[in-house]
Design goal:
Number of helices: 5
Number of domains: 1
Radius of gyration: 16 Å
Strand content: 25-35%
CATH superfamily: Ribonuclease Z/Hydroxyacylglutathione hydrolase-like
CATH topology: Metallo-beta-lactamase, Chain A
Number of strands: 14
CATH class: Alpha Beta
Order of helices and strands: EEEEHEHEEEEEHEHEHEE
Length: about 230
């Protein structure tokens, strides 16, 4: 099944959540970014400019999928240190970027700020993606809340934050709401779960605890846009 995410207009981003984990396809007016592609047919991605990998766990890194997408699209792959080591033999030379928290990558006007991550993996990271128009999307992988998120909310001011609500150790709707409260996005999107109740519970808690943040419940494989 092809994942159809339309090209957004200036000042917009469009996206689709394509698995039950942190797999998200994000499009800006000029670029297509794919984060943590696992549990998906690689042929579902007709195009890609960047593949982003947050850490080495099976639900975030599948080297065979990354190899297929990269070989077809000739995209750049940006990965945490541990994942990059596993991808060196499957990604074309010169197309793999190894990153750690605090790094920043710029690709034709798209900025990718690499942030920390509170998750029991070897070298996990999260990504703050800034479009060529300045729209900011914070992809939290399956991180739990951590102090740097408050600084991200105050200094980086994300427009959209994907909030972990299930599956990962100690993840929950309440932990996802805490991520939203720390990062203070205009829109918070619960993900990383296969339980619909997690999504609705997140929405209920967000309305009570942070009514100024809009909750967007998304269905997998469907395209959405911001704003």
């Amino acid at each position: 099944m092809s994942i159809g995410v339309p090209v957004p207009r200036k000042g917009e981003v469009s996206f689709a959540w394509f698995n039950r984990y942190a797999g998200v396809m994000i499009r800006t007016p000029s670029k297509t970014l794919i984060v943590d592609p696992t549990d998906v047919d690689p042929r579902a991605f007709a195009t890609a400019d960047v593949v982003l990998i947050t850490h080495e766990h099976y639900d975030h890194l599948d080297p065979a999928i990354v190899r297929d997408v990269q070989s077809r699209t000739k995209c750049t792959v940006i990965a945490d240190i541990t994942s990059a080591k596993r991808l060196k033999k499957v990604v074309e030379p010169g197309k793999l970027r190894e990153v750690k928290a605090g790094d920043e990558v710029e690709l034709d006007g798209i900025r990718i700020l690499i942030k920390g991550c509170n998750h029991p993996a070897a070298t996990p990271v999260t990504f703050l993606i800034v479009s060529e128009d300045g729209v900011k999307v914070y992809h939290t992988a399956d991180s739990l809340p951590f102090p740097e998120m408050k600084r991200i909310g105050e200094e980086d001011k994300p427009d959209v934050t994907f909030c972990t609500v299930g599956i990962a150790p100690r993840a929950s709707p309440s932990a996802g709401v805490e991520i939203a409260k720390l990062t203070k996005p205009k829109v918070a999107i619960p993900y990383h779960t296969d339980v619909k109740g997690d999504l609705s519970r997140f929405a209920e808690l967000l309305i009570k605890e942070a009514p100024g943040i809009r909750c967007m419940i998304v269905e997998r494989h469907k395209a959405y846009k911001y704003p």
